[in-house]
Amino acid sequence: MSVTPLFRDVSLGAGQPLVYRKLFAALRNLVQRSSDIEPKFYGMHSLRIGAATALLAAGCPKEHLMSLGRWDSECYKLYARANLPAMITWQRRLGRQFVLPTETAALLTRNGIPIEGSSLWPANCAWTAARDRNLTTNAPDDSDSDDDS
User: What are the sequence ranges of the domains in the chain?
Assistant: First the structure.
């Protein structure tokens, strides 16, 4: 049984591994020839990010996306980037959206989002802890009063 690298550099002869710097140079060369974007903004990880983003845009289920990217955790979310057309669409929707304050509780409940102060609100919520810490830190200090009475 012979053992050879999965990716081989045929210019160096059979069995020689393709090295990172050659792949990196080939990617930058391809970017430079095919777009107006600076090649310096691209690296080998760009391929992983691009694949995750394309799969997300295509509606790929998260289980398949995780499998294809060989992620065994939710870290695929760090790789998948929102695409510009989708972002513009959502920004336009945001600009046209109007929610009455009286509708907020029902909207949160309908979407499974706990309401602050309710029994479903997590006791260790980082946002609440940060807000409470900030309120305590920035509370007015009575000892600094200008009133000498």
Answer: 98-137
